[in-house]
Amino acid sequence: MLIDPFQRKISYVRVSVTDRCDFRCTYCMSEDMEFLPKKDVLSLEELDRLCNTFIDLGVKKLRITGGEPLVRKNALSLFEQLGKDLNKTNLKELTLTTNGNNLEKYADQLFESGVRRINISLDTLKPKIFKTITRKDNFDSVLRGIEKAKKAGLSIKINTVALRGINDGEFDDFIRWCGINKFTLTLIETMPMGEVDSDRRKTFLPLSEVYEDLKKRWTLEELKDNTGGPARYKLVKELNTKLGLITPMSHNFCMDCNRVRLSCTGKLYMCLGQNDSVDLKAIA
Ligand code: SAM
Ligand code: SF4
């Protein structure tokens, strides 16, 4: 069993399979990104071996992420391999976080591999603002990807980073849209991670402020769900929709967190907010 120095049992690992991405979200990357040389990135076989070791050590949930996981060549073969472990080993859930741009192509295959729930990041329902945030013109492609994922039978959680002055007028629309489509919505505060061109402080929006505002129009009931992730959940009674709030900056959640992160170069990080890591590449 993986147990950290605080005696927390680690049952959830986020695995980054690439640092590359087809978008350049302003809060995540600079426009002119320099990515890692491919030789430094773990092969899919190494990733599979490390994931299997985590599973042997009691990990129940694996989330594949990036960069953008679906831009990695043959990423689907990793899902196929890991999907074979589902319910025959400790592994109970295989999932991913994606920007949705390649979902139209891959949603069916993901479902066939055993993926049942996915997180899709979408920060705006307006094509123009989408281009401002992601620096790409792919709004329609993401919406088609979401539609395809829904049709494929995947249960969907929408991740929306709250950005002051950019998407702060859209949260009611997001709640309605998610309610109609039966998606869970999770709002996220921006964190000081990654090298960006802009000053993130200018668009930082504390979710305590968003929550106080939403309460004026929606009945938000506390939910006790703990998915092992950092979100606290409310039920939007009017639409029977779940609303998650991830507040790393304004309200910390460390004591309930049971997940660690493996970077695409094989570094195991105990916490998103810390730089301490263990290098697993040598044994991968
Ligand atoms: N490319 C995929 C995506 O966008 O879903 C997966 C990787 S992305 C790093 C995972 C999540 O982190 C996305 O929901 C994204 O919005 C969020 N994210 C990225 N940079 C962030 C930051 N500085 N603060 C808060 N959330 C951030
Ligand atoms: Fe790419 Fe995801 Fe970062 Fe946006 S948030 S640039 S989609 S990795």
Brief description of this entry?
By secondary structure, the protein is of the alpha/beta class.
Strand count: 12
* Backbone shape: globular
Low-confidence stretches: none
Number of helices: 7
Strand percent estimate: 15-25%
CA radius of gyration? 18 Å
Distance between the termini: 19 Å
Please state the structural category: alpha/beta
Order of neighbouring strands in the sheet with most strands: 7-8-9-6-5-4-3-2-1-10-11-12
Sheet bearing the most strands, described?
12 strands, mixed
> Helicity, in percent?
25-40%
Q: Compounds present?
A: S-adenosylmethionine, iron/sulfur cluster
What's the mean pLDDT score? 92
**Order of H and E elements:** EHEHEHEHHEHEHEEEEEE
What does this structure look like?
The protein has 284 residues and is α/β, with parallel strands linked by helices. It has 7 helices and 12 strands. It has a 12-stranded mixed β-sheet, covered by helices on one side. Strand 5 (155-161), helix 6 and strand 6 (184-188) form a beta-alpha-beta unit. Helix 1 packs parallel to helix 2 (75-83) and helix 3 packs parallel to helix 5. The longest helix is centred in the middle third of the chain and has 14 residues, at 139-152. The structure holds S-adenosylmethionine and iron/sulfur cluster. S-adenosylmethionine binds next to strand 3 and strand 5. The site of S-adenosylmethionine has 17 residues, from strand 3 and strand 5.
Characteristic key phrases:
284 residues, alpha/beta, twelve-stranded mixed β-sheet, 7 helices, 12 strands, globular, binds S-adenosylmethionine, binds iron/sulfur cluster
